[in-house]
Design brief:
single chain; alpha+beta; 4-stranded mixed sheet; 6 helices
Length: 154
């Protein structure tokens, strides 16, 4: 949470929040009030495929619960933001979240997948159409069996 807080509020975030719980609430409040898309890439590196002797230790049960609570808060109807989590494994530690299994995508498949995921949110269609072509090349050739867990942006 502190890394997200620093990105949103710059160095003042660490000074203005007294502890991790307050920092998490500040980040959640910002994500609820403003339209943002949070992307967590390679979650398996701290969950199912974590190296206990690596630079990033695996999440313990309490930390996994905090992530589930965070995702549940972002999924509330009054939240304006969403999150996409990528992983090479299903990440059962996330609980009941929407999952989309991905293989290597072509540019056309990427655009179709984005349209399918974002169909419930028609207000952004014009922006998505303009940006889809620019971002499609970045997804081409992703390794097979990519998994994404997502809460929907509102």
């Amino acid at each position: 949470m502190s890394a997200i807080g620093r990105q949103l509020f710059e160095p003042e975030f660490m000074i203005q929040t007294q502890d991790a719980a307050e920092g998490c609430e500040v980040v959640l409040e910002a994500l609820r009030e403003e339209r943002m898309l949070l992307t967590w890439d390679n979650l398996e590196s701290v969950c199912s495929l974590a190296d206990p002797h690596g630079t990033t230790p695996p999440l313990d049960i309490a930390e996994q619960q905090q992530i589930r609570q965070f995702l549940a808060e972002l999924a509330r109807p009054d939240s304006k933001s969403g999150v996409i989590i990528t992983s090479r494994t299903p990440e059962d530690c996330l609980g009941e979240v929407r999952r989309i299994a991905l293989g290597g995508l072509t540019s056309l498949e990427t655009a179709a997948m984005a349209e399918d995921v974002l169909r419930p949110y028609p207000q952004g269609r014009a922006r998505r159409t303009a940006r889809a072509c620019a971002g499609a090349a970045g997804l081409a050739g992703w390794p097979p069996a990519q998994h994404a867990g997502a809460t929907a942006p509102h």
